[in-house]
Design goal:
Elements (H helix, E strand, L loop, with lengths): L9 H10 L4 H7 L2 E11 L4 E3 L4 H7 L12 E3 L10 E12 L2 H8 L4 H12 L4 H10 L5 H7 L9 H9 L1
Antiparallel strand pairs: 1-4, 2-3
Helix pairs in contact: 2-4, 4-5, 6-8
């Protein structure tokens, strides 16, 4: 069964089911995974230029210059192709929550969404919306500003190389 809810992230989908008075044991025994997605503006390929994030940018995303030494951030300067916005098209940002036994137990025990997020990161390698957005910004697909404008900042992101490894596998 596929369904849609308007929630902040994938764990919000579980919380929404619990708030609908569905028994936790039913959720944990029937839900296989929950996906959250956002569409962010994509940097225009015709006017994209490489740039180094400012110290303020780095502070906003929780990284140091060393953390991003291999990243290639871009900004669109604006051109006729993008109506001088610097953006053309959209790029998908995704979060996939997989319900393994540890996550299922956390649901039955009615742990907080923060606890479930932490367990999911540790047990299934959950990559949050923010983290996926930062990986795509570091690849030059979208901007740091767009990521911070559009995605929930629920925790400090993990190191970029770790996220890239998780998303490649």
């Amino acid at each position: 069964v596929l369904t849609t809810f308007h929630t902040e992230d994938s764990i919000g989908g579980l919380v929404r089911l619990l708030n609908m008075n569905i028994e936790a044991f039913l959720i944990s025994s029937t839900v296989v995974s929950v996906t959250a997605q956002r569409l962010l503006r994509k940097i225009c390929p015709h006017c994209a230029t490489i740039y180094k994030p400012t110290p303020a940018d780095l502070q906003r995303i929780g990284y140091s210059p060393h953390d991003l030494k291999d990243a290639e951030f871009r900004k669109g300067t604006g051109c006729g192709h993008c109506q001088y916005t610097g953006y053309k098209g959209r790029v998908g940002i995704f979060e996939l929550l997989i319900l393994d036994e540890l996550v299922r137990s956390a649901i039955i025990e009615q742990k907080t969404s923060q606890d479930i997020r932490k367990i999911s990161i540790e047990s299934t390698g959950l990559v949050t919306l923010l983290e996926d957005g930062l990986v795509k910004a570091a690849a030059g697909l979208t901007s740091i500003d767009e990521v911070l404008r559009s995605l929930p900042r629920l925790q400090k992101p993990r190191p970029l190389p770790e996220l890239q490894r998780l998303l490649e596998g």
